[in-house]
Design a protein that fits this description.
9 helices, two-stranded antiparallel sheet, 22% strand, 319 residues, TIM Barrel, globular, single chain, alpha/beta
């Protein structure tokens, strides 16, 4: 670019990078619908991100969802989460967050997706902040990343195309409710009483369920948006009909839907996913109580790309 003056060139050299992550290893699920990438960052830290495909059998429309990591490691320490077991190392920058999405777009886009009239062509359909880390603990960089995803000059993704998941950082939930950002909020609950949630999601010792649900109600009142409640089912841990009854009582009066997720096994925890019939009974109990509840299809567990399975890996062992 010979038309740039020397001072600007020096500034770009000092402050700008064109590559913030490097793909190291790739895994593909047996059904070829999920891909997991291990990335090396510039400081030699590593993260994992996933790309998931889903085709609607009725309409034939395909969803292409990138599950984004927001931190190297995680300080929340959920018992069933591989990321939490490795501890917290650092936050990802906004550019490192966006770079994960751009990698999948550049790698797998075939440029055959027809654009919606009046909108930019976009191969990507959804982004979920459900990878490694607690997104709201990296507040400023997540806020900037969502702003880029929303922007017509960025990726032009709207409210229903972005989901941010949190274990329940109440001050940040209150702050982000004030932001002019388009996204859906999901709260990782996984238990409906404090004793059990203290064991499963340790942040509950700081922000109790009463405080969290009150904050969720504040959020829905402020934004007029529905909240998604995420609940991973583990055999004999949180999947009884009594647990379902507790959940119904806890969520009374909250504008929400529930996503039930089959819990995934990880090496550092002996939890096992609930049997299918138990999960269906749990779902039926919630639905008959008047709560919209979906039992999500488990994806990528065979390559450790499912909920709670992402983690940093030692590069020495990758060759």
């Amino acid at each position: 670019m010979p038309n740039l003056n020397s001072s600007l060139k020096q500034k770009l050299v000092k402050n700008m990078t064109t590559c913030t992550l490097e793909p190291i290893r790739e895994w593909v699920s047996t059904d070829a619908q999920t891909r997991k990438l291990l990335f090396r960052l510039e400081d030699n830290s590593t993260i994992e991100s996933t790309l998931m495909f889903f085709r609607n059998p009725r309409t034939g429309r395909e969803r292409r969802t990138v599950c984004v990591s927001s931190q190297v490691g995680c300080a929340i320490g959920c018992r069933f989460c591989a990321t939490g077991h490795q501890g917290f190392i650092r936050n990802l920058s906004t550019s490192e967050i966006i770079a994960q999405i751009l990698f999948f777009m550049h790698r797998f886009s075939d440029n055959t997706v027809e654009p919606v009239k009046g909108q930019r062509r976009a191969w990507l359909t959804h982004v979920v902040f459900m990878g490694m880390g607690e997104p709201l603990a990296n507040y400023d960089n997540i806020r900037q990343a969502i702003a880029i995803l929303n922007s017509p000059k960025g990726m032009g993704l709207g409210f229903h195309q972005i989901t941010l998941s949190t274990a329940g950082l109440i001050p940040q939930m209150r702050s982000i409710a004030e932001e002019p950002l388009q996204f859906q909020l999901a709260v990782s609950l996984h238990a409906a009483n404090d004793d059990l949630r203290n064991r499963l999601v340790p942040i509950n010792r700081k922000y109790s369920l009463d405080q969290l649900i009150s904050s969720c109600k504040e959020y829905t009142s402020k934004t007029n948006r529905n909240i998604f409640i995420e609940y991973a089912l583990f055999d004999g841990v949180n999947d009884s009909l009594q647990n379902a009854d507790e959940l119904v009582c806890l969520l009374d009066g909250l504008q929400c839907s529930i996503n039930l997720i089959m819990g995934n096994p990880i090496p550092s925890c002996d939890f096992q996913p609930s049997p299918q019939e138990t999960a269906l009974s749990f779902q039926k109990k919630l639905i008959t109580s008047g709560i919209r509840t979906m039992l999500r299809v488990s994806r990528g567990a065979d390559i450790e790309a499912g909920c709670g399975q992402l983690r940093s890996q030692n590069l020495v062992n990758q060759n």
